[in-house]
Design goal:
globular; 15 strands; about 450 residues; alpha/beta; eight-stranded mixed sheet
Length: about 450
């Protein structure tokens, strides 16, 4: 492990010249921050448009043979305004001409979107006095469009070793035929993770506009407590259930290398933020780490006497789903009952076919479908050592007069999944938060 830090700045952190200055101060405040990953400029205010969205819209006009001069001029102005306000000796005129020409010759949506990071990386490198490295030459995808970690490491590691400081645009790399290929939206997080692995960084700092993660959705609970430390496994559980945290895809390069991630706030650099680590012995103030959930679920209820003694019963139910291209979320069961929880939007188009297939394969005594189900995950490594966690959840929900329709707890004791009616979703999250957090801080 090196002493280097890789720092990634999101779109809100590089939205305008003022944000550029804040980001530069952060980089210069620590000599170990030697490699910087830059996103495209984000929104400067609520009604503003992200550069990436401007590029998509501009390219759409170009691809349809329309006049995109005005749209492109607006993009040029965003960058030129930043350059002017920073007082940087830099001209992007040649780059703008090249990009406009590529748009006119149908260079593709990935190319168009990637230019936001590319140009912003150029500006930030000039402002910091760092070397600029184009990821198209070093971050590689295979013929099937899947990111190639091994090939990327073989190219990127020696290149980064050559330079003391560098700015690398996020979000994109290239295909074997050298065409630009982007990661999914939010892909700059992936690039930061890749760069951190390539230099064996001691930490990957991800700078954004929030001071880390929160225990639950602030749209449901007012001013929820922050999460100071979270493990990769907890992060996966929460992100899968819809929490607005980093997706596992964006951290896998550092996760496998054991490099911690620190989520920090560019506007409040003094805040500790959230640490994402492989394992943690840190004693949390609360039993739980986070609460997350999602609506729009349906449950297929299946009843049959002596189901438990029928070999292959569960397999046949799952084959009925598989035949119709349907994934399941959870499958709680009893001696003579089985419930299969699936996303409502995915089930509806194939519901009759699925039910007919189940009927044909297992001949249930009774079967029905119940919609309007919401799932809530209560996640926390502290739950392993705390007695009565499930009991406290049920007590809180009973006090709030909320009926629990389903419960599922994994053998790892890392999370408890409960199912409630969609109309009780917000109230259930508030009740769980209150019993585990509010009562502790009161």
């Amino acid at each position: 492990m090196s002493d280097f830090k890789v720092v990634k700045f999101g779109g809100s952190s590089l939205a305008d010249a003022n944000q550029f200055k804040k980001a530069a101060e952060i980089v210069r405040a620590d000599p170990d921050r030697r490699y910087v990953v830059a996103s495209a400029p984000g929104k400067r205010f609520d009604d503003d448009t992200k550069i990436t969205d401007m590029l998509y819209a501009c390219y759409a006009k170009a691809a349809q043979g329309g006049n995109f001069e005005e749209d492109f001029a607006a993009i040029e102005k965003r960058y030129n305004d930043i350059i002017c306000e920073l007082g940087v000796e830099l001209s992007l005129s040649a780059e703008f001409t090249k990009i406009k020409n590529a748009f006119a010759h149908m260079a593709g949506r990935d190319y168009a979107a990637s230019r936001g990071e590319y140009l912003n990386g150029k500006v930030f490198a000039a402002y910091l006095g760092f070397e600029f490295i184009d990821p198209a030459m070093y971050i590689k995808f295979g013929e099937n469009g899947v990111f190639d970690l091994e090939k990327t490491m073989s190219l990127l590691r020696p290149r980064l070793k050559e330079c003391e400081h560098a700015v690398i645009p996020g979000f994109y790399g290239s295909m074997p035929n050298d065409t630009i290929k982007t990661f999914s939206r939010g892909g700059s997080d992936v690039t930061g993770s890749i760069v951190a692995r390539a230099v064996h960084a001691k930490i990957y700092e991800n700078w954004t506009d929030v001071s880390g993660f929160l225990i639950c959705d602030p749209r449901i609970v007012d001013n929820p407590a922050p999460i100071t430390t979270i493990t990769y496994r907890e992060l996966r559980e929460l992100s899968y259930m819809g929490a607005g945290v980093l997706h596992e895809d964006s951290i896998f390069p550092v996760r496998t290398a054991g490099i911690p991630i620190n989520i920090r706030n560019t506007n409040r650099p003094e805040d500790r933020g959230t640490m994402i680590v492989a394992e943690s012995e840190e004693v949390s103030k609360y039993v739980i780490t986070g609460i997350a959930g999602k609506k729009g679920m349906s449950v297929i209820n299946i009843e049959k006497d002596m189901m438990n003694s029928e070999v292959g019963f569960g397999r046949n139910v799952l084959r009925s789903l598989e035949k119709n291209g349907l994934n399941f979320e959870h499958m709680p069961s009893g001696i003579d009952t089985m419930s299969v929880i699936v996303a409502t939007d995915a089930l509806k188009p194939v519901q009759k076919s699925v039910l007919d297939e189940i009927e044909f394969r297992v001949h249930p005594d009774h079967m029905d479908v119940e919609d309007d189900l919401a799932l809530i995950a209560v996640v926390g490594r502290g739950m392993r050592k705390a007695r009565g966690t499930a009991g406290r959840i049920f007590s809180a929900l009973a006090h709030a007069k909320i009926n629990v329709k389903m419960i599922d707890q994994g053998s790892s004791e890392l999370n408890v999944i409960i199912g409630v009616s969609e109309e009780d979703f917000e109230a259930a999250i508030k009740a769980i938060y209150d019993i585990f957090v509010t009562t502790v801080t009161a």
